[in-house]
Amino acid sequence: MLKKMLPSPKPFGYKRFEILAALFNGVTLFVIGVVIIIEAIRRFFVPENVQSTEMFIISVIGLIVNIIVASFMFKGGDTHENINMRGAFLHVLGDLLGSVGAIIAAILIWSFGWYVADPIASIIVSLLIIKSSWGITKSSLNILMEGTPSNVDINQVIASIKSEPAIHAVHDCHIWTISNEMNALSCHAVVDNEMSIAEGEQFITSY
C-alpha cells in the first residue's frame, strides 16, 4: 500500500498509514497497561485463588512463542528506526514480559504461597509497557502534528542552505516528517538575480 502510485490529491501517498498504525499500537498498549494495573490493585483487596501449576505451564508456552516471534521481528524488521515496527515489536515484548512476570509469580505462589506476587508482577510489567508505549505515542503524535524531527537541527539546515553563495537569506523554514523514511522541508529563500531556475532546482535536489 505504501508503494502505491501517488494520486494527485495525496502528494505523499499513503505513507502516513504507518504512523497512524504506530499511534494505534501505542495508545492500545497504554490503555491495556492501565487496565491491568487497575485489575491488579483490585486483586490486592479481593485475592483470587490462583492455580499456580496451570499458570506456570501456560506462561512458559506463551514465553516460548513470544521469544520466537520477537526474534523474527528483531531480525527481519527495523525495530529501532521504523516507528510502526517498533510499536508492533512492543506488543510482542509486552506479551513476553507478561509471561516472564507470570512465571515468576507462579513460582513464588507455588513455593511460598505468596498470592500477592501475581498482582505485583502485573503492576511491574504494566508500568514497563506504559513507559514504552508512551514513547511510541509521543513520537507518533509529534509526526502527525508535523513537529520538527528530533534528530534534525533546523538552525544547522538553514546555515547549510545559506552557505550557497547565491542565497542571501532564508526565512519561514519548516521541517517535518512524512514517514520514517521521508522528511519534508519548505522555506522562503532570497536568491541572487543571476541564479537561474535550473540552477535553483539543481541546488534543491542536492538536499
TrEMBL record:
Top-level taxon of origin: Bacteria
Keywords carried by this UniProt record: Ion transport, Membrane, Transmembrane, Transmembrane helix, Transport
Any one Pfam family match given in the protein's UniProt record, by short name: Cation_efflux
GO MF entries: zinc ion transmembrane transporter activity
Cellular location(s): Membrane
SUPFAM superfamilies linked to this entry: Cation efflux protein cytoplasmic domain-like, Cation efflux protein transmembrane domain-like
UniProt domain Cation efflux protein cytoplasmic: residue ranges: 149-203
GO cellular component, one term: plasma membrane
Membrane topology, as annotated: Multi-pass membrane protein
Occurrences of domain Cation efflux protein transmembrane (ranges): 11-145
TM stretches of this protein: 20-41, 56-76, 88-113, 119-137
Ranges in a coiled coil: none
Family named by the database record: Belongs to the cation diffusion facilitator (CDF) transporter (TC 2.A.4) family. SLC30A subfamily.
PANTHER family hit by this protein: CATION EFFLUX PROTEIN/ ZINC TRANSPORTER (PTHR11562), RE54080P-RELATED (PTHR11562:SF17)
The protein's name in its UniProt record: Cobalt-zinc-cadmium resistance protein
Gene behind this protein: czcD_2
